[in-house]
Amino acid sequence: MLNRREFLGLVGAVTATGPALLRGAQSSEWGSPVFDLHCHLRAQPGANVAHLDGAGITKANLLTRAAASDQVAALQAAAPDRFTWFCSADPSRPEGIEALTQSVKSGARGFGEMKYHLATDAPEFQRAYALAAELRVPILIHFQEVDHFPNEGTWSTGFATNFERILKAHPNTTFIGHADAFWANVSADYRNEAAYPSGPIVRGGITDKLLGDYPNLYGDLSANSGNNMLSRDPDFTAAFLSRHANKLLFGSDCGCADGRGSGVSQGNNPAATRLAGKCVARETLTVLKRSASPEIFRKIVWGNASALLKFPA
Ligand SMILES: [Zn+2]
Ligand SMILES: [Zn+2]
């Protein structure tokens, strides 16, 4: 639970935002309500609300470990209707599967983000996929094969080569793909050369194909990975957003302090300097806004998440 200082900090921040709490599904400065699928819980409770308000975000999905469930509940109570919750736990540990199950009973609407040093087709990971289907919640996965710093290690390896088999083997599991390997593989020429490849996109990449072929796969556009993909090739981006208008979800994964780029937006990632001093949420919303029709923009930043996470549109 919150200590007294944290609680006062939270109340202070909430009070300072005033009418923002009542925004609900009304339009924001973006011309549509905005849902941030990928929001890591900040230690200071009020800082979570401050980022939403600063970036013009209506509502956000907190991604936490199971141990943070009390903090999530306190924040949800203090800022009603502004936060949903996904929980993650290591499926290779015996207590991990139990924690995931319990989290859904306690209100989690999905698993995530799942970021572990496991192959995408590891039996331990497949237990979590099966559990997500059983509990009817989506599972959000971080795919990364190139280190951001020496010896970081890889996460959910084998996306390009093995993930299609997983989509086939778990047709009742709703997957949400995220991070470097997921978005770099939108281009057909990608071979794990760089975390964030640049330049025009070669059509026919595996991620584009999988989003088109599998109804159980969605894409989370958060972080430098999503923003970089959207920024490489404007002609491609417009067509891609239109092609997968019902499968893409806005997210920020932004760590900045105020929703305007102060502090550090992509912490712990020296490979993402292109977003230094910027709010990832604002940058990605700006690309989406100029690349999509108002109708498609609204789906990607609000409607698709509302349907998937079952909150009122
Ligand atoms: Zn991630
Ligand atoms: Zn930000």
Order of strands side by side in the largest beta sheet?
Answer: 1-2-3-4-5-6-7-8
Q: Unreliable runs, pLDDT <50, ≥5 residues?
A: 1-5, 11-25
Class derived from helix and strand content: alpha/beta
What is the helical fraction, as a range of percent? 40-55%
Number of strands: 8
Mean pLDDT over all positions: 92
| Global shape | globular
Largest sheet: 8 strands, parallel
Write the layout of secondary structure elements.
Elements (H helix, E strand, L loop, with lengths): L3 H14 L17 E6 L4 H11 L3 E7 L3 H10 L4 E6 L5 H12 L4 E5 L8 H13 L3 E4 L16 H11 L5 E4 L1 H5 L21 H8 L3 E4 L2 H9 L2 H10 L4 E2 L30 H12 L2 H16 L4
Parallel strand pairs: 1-2, 2-3, 3-4, 4-5, 5-6, 6-7, 7-8
The structure holds zinc ion (2 copies).
The site of one zinc ion has 9 residues, from helix 2 and helix 11.
Fold and architecture overview:
There is one protein chain. With about 325 residues, the chain is of the alpha/beta class. It is about 40% helix and about 10% strand. It contains 12 helices and 8 strands. An 8-stranded parallel beta sheet has the order 1-2-3-4-5-6-7-8, sandwiched between helices. Helix 5 links the parallel strand 4 and strand 5. Helix 11 crosses helix 12. The radius of gyration is 18 Å and the shape is globular. The two termini are about 30 Å apart. The N terminus is likely disordered. The chain binds zinc ion (2 copies). The site of one zinc ion (ZN) has 9 residues, from helix 2 and helix 11.
